[in-house]
Amino acid sequence: MANICVIGMGKMGLPVAALFAACGSTVVGADINAEVVAAINAGTCPIDNEPGLAEMISETVTTGRLRATTDTPEAVRASDVVVVLVPLLVDPRNQYEPTYRALESAMDGIGRGIRPGTLVILETTLPVGDTRNRLGPIIEQVSGLRAGEDFLLVFSPERVQSNQVIRNLLEYPKVVGGVNQRSTDAAVAFYQEALTTNIIAVANAETAEFAKIAECVYRDVNIALANEMAISAASVGVDFNDVIMAANSEPLSHIHKPGLGVGGHCIPVYPYFMINRQEPTVLAQQARKINDGMADYATDLLRGELGSLDGQNVLVLGLSYRANVKEPTFSSAILLVQSLQRAGAQVYLLDPLFTAEEIARYTPGALAVNPDLSGLPKFAAAIVQAWHNDFRSLSWRDLPGTPIVLDGRNAVNRAEVEAAGLRYVAIGVAERNVAASV
Ligand SMILES: NC(=O)c1ccc[n+]([C@@H]2O[C@H](COP(=O)([O-])OP(=O)(O)OC[C@H]3O[C@@H](n4cnc5c(N)ncnc54)[C@H](O)[C@@H]3O)[C@@H](O)[C@H]2O)c1
User: Fold this and answer.
1) What are the residues facing 147 on neighbouring strands?
2) Structural domains of the chain ordered from first start
3) Where would you tag: which of 78, 79, 126, 308 has the fewest CB atoms within 10 A of its CB?
4) Residue 249 Cα, ligand 1 centroid: separation in angstroms?
């Protein structure tokens, strides 16, 4: 089995490293965060809500298969294979253009430690061409070695989702594409030995890079389509949930669920790698507008119910972009809070996964609600943004005022809401009952 270095011990890199170690490889994780490194070396898991990960870290650290370090060149020097999962951050104030600082510093660290024959695999999502033209050349410049000749260079996207990473890693095929055939062949041989997943070798690094972006554009466009049809269904008095159930009984129809918008690192972000660098992108751009516009649609729905939101207290349930994951990055909660604030509402936020300080930081102006629901004001409405398991024990009667629940994820039991005497409103649920008007 190969000696592996995984650079970036975050939500993706750490489970990847632990799984390699659990499958029998010797793994060293490199990270600039000394606290994360210390936690791993103590056999503890610095990440919440990742089933199976804590046990895997404890076991593989104890057996000596996994360790961590802040010294990237040392870790690279000790390894035959280097896997990179350092984030490529993007700047929404600059058209979501990437800011390469973290990745470039990781490339520099690789360049200083790399030996001839090392296989370098970039798993961080990248714009098409970056493996070959932007990041590989940094390693070449620092090391004096040639990509594809002296060392092997591959892109292989990480396609998994937070809080199901280990399951996804074992189930999803691994897509690999190198800067040349030798690199691709080396990566196929590596993943075949190190993991038990199927492997899809594609023509080159650029194909593999675009495959990940295409997955995100596909999801974004299809969610936008569902959102547009849901709004359209509601406008003619039709419940879109029934439409999905009926239409998807045809095997070629895969209509997605509508909702308050999309969030997280991937779906709202990586389409911009295509929009900013490739053509044509008409649909991809429109999907971004539609999905980010769902926050204003929700505000308009409430305005339609309440007349005005000016000076009204509105409770948002869930800051995370997705249920049961502590991830605020590009969460649609942020757009929702801003939209409600523009309408004059005082927004309250309840999310037991976040501290009051974190809520204040990620959604400025929103007031954090105590998870024990003490000291609540009267709410004009509650909006379900991310339906965490913790919310299932919530009694709607515990929310003072609150005549309306807007279910932004079609996740809540409508009968329970109505049994508590509240009005249930949802994305794609009829504004009026079409049968009553026929
Ligand atoms: N989070 C997801 O749901 C998800 C899903 C699929 C793919 N991905 C891909 O994984 C990448 C990483 O995401 P994540 O969620 O693990 O990020 P994260 O923020 O959880 O972790 C990143 C880690 O990298 C470390 N780091 C930063 N710069 C470094 C450097 N120069 N050298 C060493 N370590 C460094 C940080 O300290 C941090 O521990 C993303 O950019 C994306 O391309 C993420």
Assistant:
1) 151
2) 3-203 (3.40.50.720), 206-438 (3.40.50.720)
3) 308
4) 39
Q: Is the CB of 47 under 6 A from ligand 1?
A: no
Bond preceding residue 116 cis, omega within 30 of 0: no
Instruction: Give distance in angstroms: CA of 123 to centre of ligand 1.
Output: 10
Distance in angstroms (rounded) separating the CA atoms of residues 53 and 167: 10
DSSP assignment of 376-420 equals ---EEEEEESS--GGGGG--GGGSSEEEEEEETTS-S-HHHHHHT
Cβ atoms of 205 and 153 closer than 8 Å: yes
β-bridge mates for residue 308, sequence order: none
* Separation of first and last alpha carbons in the chain: 70
pLDDT at res. 425? 95
- Token code pair at residue 62: 């104890």
What gap in Å lies between CA 139 and CA 111, rounded to an integer? 4
> Tens digit of pLDDT for each residue in 392-415?
999 999 898 989 999 999 999 999
